[in-house]
Design brief:
Layout lengths: L5 E5 L4 H11 L6 E6 L19 E5 L5 H10 L4 E4 L6 H6 L2 H21 L3 E6 L23 H20 L3 E6 L1 E3 L8 H10 L4 E4 L5 E6 H14 L5 E4 L4 E3 H12 L6 E4 L14 H7 L7 H17 L1
Parallel strand pairs: 1-2, 1-4, 2-3, 4-5, 5-6, 6-10, 7-9, 8-12
Antiparallel strand pairs: 9-11
Helix pairs in contact: 1-7, 2-4, 4-5, 6-8, 6-10
Bound molecules: nicotinamide-adenine-dinucleotide (NAD).
């Protein structure tokens, strides 16, 4: 089991990172939590209101591409483990311009790898099921499924995964990779699908769904994802990949209908937008390995959890 005494969390001011910060501070083994975040358009200090108040918590604004800073942080805090969630995460933006995706997701991760290796600190690298490309029904992605990324975003994430795996083979570096399905929960950036649907619905504006919304995504509550990452760093085997998913496949159209029902809005708001180039039709992960070797499985049912999440996201938009 790896030590959680002093943790560095990158990307902690973003959607998933800000939830992971809360989970880590709830974990009694954590004596120190340092969040390193560049505060791009996607990150916000407001997401860390709460963790900010904990004496074990420290925030540092900085870039994972800054190797001297990373080395100094690991040394200064005697770090025992790193979670890497710093990333450019929006597929549409990557299609318009991939430069930041290459700089952070690939070069930044390479920097972090080097720094962790030099300091002998174990790393959890947070990846995505999008690295596998699209899954035909009824197939599910296994951790051994070949990588076939479709977008610059998923290609940058797959590249980082390969750098991580190569570091295990070449240097026997201690690291674990998780590949997770689509997350839903609080503090998600307004540009993502669920907040976009809510925003349009609240304004009674048409909700544009790429290609009519027939794409299928597996949805996982962000808290289940965070528990999975913590368990994976705690007892995952070095060099191993663990798929994490919610066991909840929905079409984007079906999900939109559910959100409209929760908000009491008519389905007539749903409209079609031209499909995204290279849009994967379906993501579906097999999570048997995480259950078998980590004892992890998702605990949250979307049908039960979605109404509260939608109402709180909606309330925050109205503020
Ligand atoms: N959102 C999902 O559904 C999902 C699913 C699977 C995996 N993931 C992965 O989870 C991680 C977090 O995703 P998210 O949805 O919270 O993203 P997000 O865009 O909400 O947050 C990313 C955070 O990283 C920070 N950041 C960006 N570049 C940085 C850099 N160079 N140095 C330091 N910080 C930097 C941003 O300021 C932001 O706070 C990503 O690696 C993403 O690929 C996300």
């Amino acid at each position: 089991m790896r030590s959680f005494r002093s943790i560095l969390l990158t990307g902690g001011a973003g959607f998933i990172g800000s939830s992971l910060a809360r989970h880590l501070l709830a974990f009694e083994k954590v004596e120190r939590l340092v969040v390193l975040d560049k505060l791009t358009y996607a990150g916000s200090r407001d997401n860390l209101a709460g963790p900010d108040q904990d004496p074990r918590f420290e925030f540092v604004q900085g870039d994972i591409a800054d190797r001297p800073l990373l080395g100094e942080l690991l040394r200064q805090h005697n770090t025992t483990g790193v979670f890497n969630l710093a990333a450019e995460s929006h597929v549409d933006r990557s299609i318009l311009n991939a430069d930041d995706f290459v700089a952070t997701n690939i070069v930044g991760t390479a920097n972090l790898l080097e720094t962790c290796r030099a300091a002998r600190v174990p790393l959890l690298h947070c990846s995505t099921d999008e690295v596998y490309g699209s899954a035909l029904v009824p197939h599910k992605f296994l951790e051994t499924t070949p990588l076939a990324p479709s977008s610059p975003y998923s290609a940058s994430k797959a590249s980082a995964d390969l750098l991580c795996l190569a570091a295990v083979t070449t240097y026997r570096q201690d690291l674990v990779i998780t590949r997770c399905a689509n997350n839903y929960g609080l503090r998600q950036h307004p540009e993502k699908l669920i907040p976009t649907i809510i925003r349009h619905a609240l304004r009674d504006e048409p909700i544009p769904l790429f290609g009519g919304g027939m794409q299928i995504r597996d949805w996982i509550h962000v808290d289940d994802h965070c528990r999975g990452m913590i368990t994976a760093l705690h007892r995952g085997q070095s060099g191993h990949i663990y798929n994490l998913g919610g066991h909840c496949e929905r079409t984007n159209l079906g999900l939109t209908r559910s959100i409209l029902t929760i908000l009491g809005k008519p389905e007539s708001l749903i409209s079609t937008a031209p499909d995204r180039p290279g849009h994967d039709l379906r993501y579906s992960v097999d999570t048997t390995k995480a259950l078998r070797f980590l004892g992890w499985s998702p605990q949250t049912q979307m049908a039960k959890a979605l109404p509260a999440v939608v109402r709180e996201l909606a309330a925050n938009m109205a503020d």
